[in-house]
Each structure stands twice: as structure tokens, then as C-alpha cells.
Amino acid sequence: MSMLRPKLVLDHVSEITPSLLAEHGLGGLLLDLDNTLIEYGSYQEAREVQAWAAELMLGGVKLYLLSNALPERVRFWTARLGFSGVGLASKPAPRAFRVAARQMGLAPAQVAMVGDQLFTDVLGGNLAGMYTIMVRPLADNALPHTRLARRVERLVLKRYGLQPWSKT
Ligand SMILES: [Mg+2]
């Protein structure tokens, strides 16, 4: 069960700062796309997230997008965000996580996986030997299996003594 435990639970990616990363010996972030950086399925401008990413990169932090979404969609967002990434990543399988760390020129232990889902982002990041940060999902699609997963995620967080968000 401990493979499902995020090291840190935050409300929003913008709470991640260069000093927070330095504190944990981290040089890069592996970022989930949907419901982590932008609302699920969105193609709309995301100025706050773009500014946050630009500032981190200026601070020497390496960023890489790791998504299970289609490559076309991932390419749209990497072009807009100004860093590389990959789609159809088959998260939580740890292979793509390790390949991404190599692309970033970092060891897995120097990378934090940041995402809104325990069973893909956090599990895969932990399996790959990375630091893991769970963020509050930006907007949920109403698919029944997603709602069920959210309920289970909350139970797991509580079991670990981590504070789940009151509402997602
Ligand atoms: Mg997501």
C-alpha cells in the first residue's frame, strides 16, 4: 500500500517553488497534464500555469510532461508550455517515468512526479523511485469510474493520515 502514498499533497501546482524543490534535492518535475496543469480535455489558454512553468525553468528546474493522453494533444501543450513531453505513457507502468528522467538528464530520485491521480501518477512515480506530489484535481469529468476512483483515493489518503481535499 505504501506505493500509493504521495510524499506531499498540495492544492495546486503553483505552490511548487524552486526553493521547495531544492529542499528535497529535486532538479526536475514530471508533470501530468489533465486536471493537474489544465482542466480535463482543455485547449484553453492557461496563463497562470504558463507563467509558473516559465519561472521554474528560469530557476533551472527541468520540466517534462508525462500524460496518458493522445500524442497530438500532448504536442499541442508542450509547444504552448515550452518544454518536452510524451503521450500514451501507460501510467502507472514505471517505464515511461524512467525514460522521461533520462531525457531530463536526472536520476529518478532527483525528479518529482506531480499529478492528480493516485493510481496512475503517484503509484507510477513511487514505482519508478521518484518523489511524488499529489495535487487537487482541477475539474472532474463526471464519468462513474472517475467518481469511484476519487472516493477510493480519499480513503487511501485518510488511511495515510494525509488530509484529502474537502471537495474535488
Ligand atoms: Mg490527471
TrEMBL record:
Keywords: Hydrolase, Magnesium. One of its GO terms (molecular function) is phosphatidylglycerophosphatase activity. CDD domains: HAD_BsYqeG-like. InterPro entries: HAD-like_hydrolase, HAD-like_sf, HAD-SF_hydro_IIIA, HAD_sf, PGPP1/Gep4. The keyword Hydrolase applies. Pfam families: Hydrolase_like (PF13242). The keyword Glycoprotein does not apply. This is HAD phosphatase subfamily IIIA. The lineage of its organism: Bacteria, Thermotogati, Deinococcota, Deinococci, Deinococcales.
